[in-house]
Amino acid sequence: MQWPRFMRRPSNIISVPTVVESLPITKPGFSFGDPRQKVSSLERDFGSTLLPFNEHSESFVAPFPRQGENTELLLERLDELPRKMLVALYESKTPLWPNFLIHHAVGDGLNLQSVRSCMRHQGRGYTEAWCVLPASKMAKLIRGQKLSKPLLCGSSWQNKRFLSTAVDHQRTLAQLENTQPIEHVDRITVVMPHYDDEVLQCGGAMLQALADNTTVQVIWLSDGSRGVSSVDHQQSSQIRRAESAAAMAELGIKNTHHLGGIETLLTADDSICEQLRHLLSEFRPQRVHGVWWADNHVDHYEANLILQRAWPQDLDATIAASSLWQVMPPRTVVELTTQQHQQKMRALQCYKSQIDAVDYSRLSRHLDAFFASQYDADYAENFWHVPANEYFTAMQASQITARRWFG
Fold first, then answer.
1. Domain definitions of the chain by residue range
2. Which of 27, 137, 270, 359 has its CA 20 to 30 A from that of 223?
């Protein structure tokens, strides 16, 4: 039986931005500051014709607002614009959910721009991220309101999956409140969908925990079978599992478990949930590190459904969620010493099969530098850290668990 299109599983990356040479806008006018120092494509493409927004402007350019920032002035401006006028909001000091990327082959962009280039361009140069929508839809997006979807998937800013997931993301940002400091506990469990996620997302936090004599348990949900494209699934699993053993030896972690879910096809089935529930009930962690439900990867999203279903009812623990494929705005930032970051990088180098495909070393350096940029530190990791019941309640409130996949 052929399932209807809307029920099919999406590709690994939930929303894939379109890489373009230039934005589909004409005669842009900017507001809330001259953007040319932050997004050089505007200087290149429009030069001296880029002016403050005026009656002759045909499109509107501004920075995407930070989480918690007052958006009244921006929304007032958007409500005043013609409904179909294109609005282009660029990524500056806060991560956005983009539908367009502009890649620059050379140069040293901002930390977020370097992270973007690692994901899509093997770490070369830097990449600007943009959200481009008609004014009426942009205003609804910022308000977290439902966006109308076209019947056909045509232009990039009308793509159904982008429109759905962008609203999911905006609603999620509204839930990121009341984060708590990361403090000493006796037992920590790290639950990650893939081999390498544990080092990338909380390698430094694990090192700090071990230095405080905390017992650390690491659980991988997937089998690594699709991670090395040049070999068959069994060989890929063997390679990635061996790499994980080397990475854990570098960090000094011995308590590890492999649940064997199929990579790229993770789902909250009985087997994997029962395995995870048993491990959590037996180990009784006081803090669980996992991936943020809004991370832009299908397995990362599914990992949250697995964790929610497997969570023992009598387990009183917090969840420290982190991100990679969609950067989370800074919440609870944990500063890393130079030694800790160097050891984290050595552990990451053990995942050679993955670094061959994506420059995770550069990605991690720039991501950790971005989180540290607001503090007197070189590198840091970032977590949304709350009691488990608050985490799962917020996940429900974001409406992301009611997601339907579109093309």
1. 10-173, 187-402
2. 359
